[in-house]
């Protein structure tokens, strides 16, 4: 923890209505242990009240503040400034990729949420079944049926980082596919397999693995997509031999 | 509001490796080597077509094939084949859930193997015959 | 802004936090046309940054029993209607020294008086249930606490409000009020920050649900309420060390609540008054103190990395010396009575756990003023899925 303040230039993407986009620079004095979102908030509060951006919880539970920071998807509320720049450096902030831009750093998440709903994504899951099968992490377990809010905070960063989501508008996307895999594992709901077993679903992924790299919340969408493929194939094979539809 | 939408035209952006991790580099390499191998295949077929024209065409082709820049091109083709093939194995494995959590290590291992293989072929192509 | 001809009474709500969203749901269900404006996104003010504790009320059962009773009743309701965003694993009140122990008997009596079901648990047993609890714990009570996701709770109310026809306009900052010839409020003037354009909207009644900013926005029309923005700090750590909320058994104080949430634990909070809360800088000394408090309750927090730190400004009614002595209950103000201004109502104070009840009381007042006889129906039915908030109009009917 340092007491010395850094001079950092925030270069913020601006766009309103049909006007052409541009980058607006703001010079700030920041504590390097502060978070990128703190800087953006100060810009709104003290420099430009027309700046629009999303934020709510400030501690990675709501997923609202995902943005591109120096070209990489980051959850700005938990990204310390020292992680992305140095004293005298620049922080370029842009809205997430692959979502329509509403204004400045705010993007339209309606399609994303529709897909999460179609995938029957769960927000509350049993604690004992809430980690990935390969994780060695264990939460306190007293044998009682505790539940917790799910890992996926629906921030959309995985979709922003995905090369297929860049070019294919109908791709269901890593978040929805990961959600379908988890829900299927917990509920065995066959209709989810039918949902993802298509050209725009689980077979559209081309193994970029960016989704897992940028996820701030231990979802590992890439692993879940591959696992979902196995589940789909298992189900198909069973159908051939048992004809149980 | 109709901006920033996914479109096929954005595919050129796939080839920008900045700020991305090894999974994307493998993705880019796979596509570049695929294009390269396809181009090579086309050239190869054209060349075969020319050979069907008779012995003089064959002799002039062999003379061309021994020039250093063609040899280098062929080395690139071998590299491309190794990279594409080995990364293809990595993708096949991960697509069926094998090694997903170590995909980066797989990438580096296979890339290393491909480069070693290229070096061996290069040695034989340039220094042995 | 195009307005369809309204046959329904139209209410504007300023503020899309818990209160504004829950009120929009209640009024829309009662048949009003509702428009909610917020200068930011849903829950981007105090509500989004709330600690996330679904109070059992036990915290207030000795010194603020009115609050405690409200909490336990609303706790039971929200458990049912907002299950989609609540971790409901209960909580512990733990005694770590003699003063804590001395509070125990009053705590038991208070809980019983307020109708809060508590259970004394042997410390040994408590440590089996929560192995990361401070091993020196002397006494433990189980309480029906829960944890919720702040944004999703607000969105669930907002989605339900939209289902009944309410319209939400985030990034629309109210700049002034419109008044008619008789000095009554007839609407608002707003700045659409998405398009950087300005316009007006008329209504039969305007509700000021801006929480900690309730006093600020009323200055524009010369009205006032005494609400004191009272910030506090929260620190989140990257490890889920407990499944239950851990509270300190004593009078409400600083740093005495640790909640689990997803894969984190969050310690809170402090309390001090502030004038200006558009931006509240993080007080580093408070963060350090919170760290100590967290480690006191759950020593293993010392091995965890800080994931986030943030401030949130509660709206406390009235002005006082210390934040803790102000009531945490809420109050509706009819500005015809307080300032001689018709057509304007303010609702402020309260806490997240009681947002539905705050909305009910406010909606009762609004309907009474507009001559609408409709009863509250928000307690009985589960809220719509919070994801529906994001669907374009007409898509969720």
TrEMBL record, chain A:
Signal peptide: none annotated. Binds 1 [4Fe-4S] cluster. Binds 1 [2Fe-2S] cluster. Belongs to the succinate dehydrogenase/fumarate reductase iron-sulfur protein family. The keyword Metal-binding applies. SUPFAM superfamilies: 2Fe-2S ferredoxin-like, alpha-helical ferredoxin. This is Fumarate reductase iron-sulfur subunit. Its cofactor is [4Fe-4S] cluster; [2Fe-2S] cluster; [3Fe-4S] cluster. Its EC number is 1.3.5.1. Pathway: Carbohydrate metabolism; tricarboxylic acid cycle. PANTHER family: SUCCINATE DEHYDROGENASE [UBIQUINONE] IRON-SULFUR SUBUNIT, MITOCHONDRIAL, SUCCINATE DEHYDROGENASE IRON-SULFUR PROTEIN. It comes from Anaerolinea thermolimosa. It is an enzyme of class 1 (oxidoreductase). One of its GO terms (molecular function) is 4 iron, 4 sulfur cluster binding. The keyword Plastid does not apply.
From TrEMBL, chain C:
GO terms for molecular function: glycerol-3-phosphate dehydrogenase (quinone) activity. It comes from the Bacteria. GO terms for biological process: glycerol-3-phosphate metabolic process. Its cofactor is FAD. Gene3D superfamilies: FAD/NAD(P)-binding domain. InterPro entries: FAD-dep_OxRdtase, FAD/NAD-bd_sf, G3P_DH_FAD-dep. PANTHER family: GLYCEROL-3-PHOSPHATE DEHYDROGENASE, GLYCEROL-3-PHOSPHATE DEHYDROGENASE, MITOCHONDRIAL. This is FAD-dependent oxidoreductase. It comes from Anaerolinea thermolimosa.
């Amino acid at each position: 923890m340092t007491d010395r303040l850094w001079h950092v230039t925030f270069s913020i993407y601006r766009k309103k209505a049909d006007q052409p986009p541009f980058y607006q620079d703001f010079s700030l004095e920041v504590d390097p242990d502060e978070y990128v979102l703190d800087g953006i908030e100060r810009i709104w509060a003290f420099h430009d009240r027309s700046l629009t951006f999303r934020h709510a919880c400030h501690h990675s539970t709501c997923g609202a503040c995902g943005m591109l920071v120096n070209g990489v998807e980051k959850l700005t509320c938990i990204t310390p400034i020292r992680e992305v720049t140095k004293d005298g450096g620049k922080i370029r902030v842009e809205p997430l990729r692959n979502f329509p831009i509403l204004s400045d750093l705010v993007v339209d998440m309606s399609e994303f949420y529709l897909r999460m709903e179609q995938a029957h994504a769960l927000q509350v899951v049993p604690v004992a079944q809430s980690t990935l099968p390969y994780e060695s992490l264990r939460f306190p377990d007293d044998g009682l049926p505790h539940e917790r809010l799910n890992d996926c905070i629906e921030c959309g960063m995985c979709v922003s980082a995905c090369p297929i989501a860049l070019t294919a508008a109908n791709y269901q996307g890593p978040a929805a596919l990961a959600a379908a895999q988890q829900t299927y594992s917990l509920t065995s709901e066959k209709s989810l397999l039918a949902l993802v077993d298509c050209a725009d679903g689980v077979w559209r992924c081309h193994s970029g693995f960016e989704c897992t790299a940028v996820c701030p919340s231990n979802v590992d969408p890439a692993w879940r997509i591959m696992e979902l493929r196995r589940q789909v194939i298992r189900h198909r094979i069973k159908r051939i031999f048992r004809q149980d539809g | 509001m109709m901006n920033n939408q996914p479109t096929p035209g954005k595919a050129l952006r796939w080839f920008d490796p900045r700020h991305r991790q090894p999974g994307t580099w493998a993705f880019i390499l796979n596509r570049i080597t695929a294009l390269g191998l396809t181009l090579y295949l086309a050239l190869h077929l054209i060349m075969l077509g020319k050979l069907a024209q008779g012995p003089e065409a064959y002799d002039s082709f062999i003379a061309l094939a021994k020039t250093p820049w063609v040899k280098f091109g062929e080395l690139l083709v071998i590299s491309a084949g190794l990279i594409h093939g080995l990364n293809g194995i990595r993708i096949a494995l991960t697509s069926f859930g094998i090694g997903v959590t170590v995909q980066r290590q797989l990438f580096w291992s296979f890339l290393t193997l491909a480069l070693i293989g290229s070096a061996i072929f290069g040695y034989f192509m340039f220094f042995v015959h | 802004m195009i307005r369809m001809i309204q046959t329904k009474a139209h209410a504007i709500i300023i503020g899309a936090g818990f209160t504004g969203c829950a009120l929009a749901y209640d009024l829309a269900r009662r048949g009003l046309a509702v428009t909610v404006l917020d200068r930011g996104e849903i829950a981007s003010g105090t509500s989004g940054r709330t600690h996330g504790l679904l109070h059992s009320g036990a915290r207030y059962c000795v010194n603020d029993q009115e609050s405690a009773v409200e909490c336990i009743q609303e706790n039971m309701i929200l458990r049912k209607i907002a299950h989609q965003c609540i971790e409901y694993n209960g909580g512990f009140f733990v005694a770590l020294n003699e003063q804590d122990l001395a509070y125990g008997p009053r705590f038991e009596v208070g809980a019983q008086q307020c109708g809060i079901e508590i259970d004394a648990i042997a410390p040994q047993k408590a440590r089996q249930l929560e192995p990361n609890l401070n091993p020196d714990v002397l006494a433990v009570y189980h309480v029906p606490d829960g944890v919720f996701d702040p944004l999703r709770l607000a969105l669930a109310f907002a989605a339900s409000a939209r289902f009944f026809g309410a319209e939400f306009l985030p990034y629309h900052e109210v700049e002034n009020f419109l008044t008619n010839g008789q000095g009554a409020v007839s609407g608002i003037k707003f700045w659409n920050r998405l398009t950087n354009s300005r316009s007006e909207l008329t209504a039969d009644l305007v509700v000021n649900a801006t929480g900690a900013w309730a006093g600020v926005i009323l200055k524009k029309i010369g009205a006032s309420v005494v609400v004191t923005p009272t910030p506090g700090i929260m620190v989140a750590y990257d490890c889920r060390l407990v499944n239950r909320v851990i509270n300190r058994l004593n009078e409400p104080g600083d740093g005495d609540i640790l909640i689990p949430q997803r894969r984190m634990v969050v310690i809170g909070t402090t309390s001090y008054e502030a004038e200006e809360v558009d931006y509240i800088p993080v007080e580093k000394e408070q963060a350090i103190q919170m760290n100590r408090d967290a480690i006191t309750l759950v020593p293993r927090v010392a091995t965890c990395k800080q994931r986030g730190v943030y401030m949130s400004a509660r709206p406390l009614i009235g002005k006082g010396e210390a934040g803790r002595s102000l009531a945490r209950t809420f109050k509706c103000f009819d500005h015809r009575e307080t300032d001689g201004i018709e057509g304007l109502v303010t609702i402020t104070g309260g806490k997240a756990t009681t947002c539905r009840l705050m909305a009910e009381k406010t909606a009762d007042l609004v309907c009474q003023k507009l001559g609408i006889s409709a009863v509250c129906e928000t307690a009985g039915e589960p809220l719509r899925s919070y994801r529906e908030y994001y669907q374009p109009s007409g898509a969720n009917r």
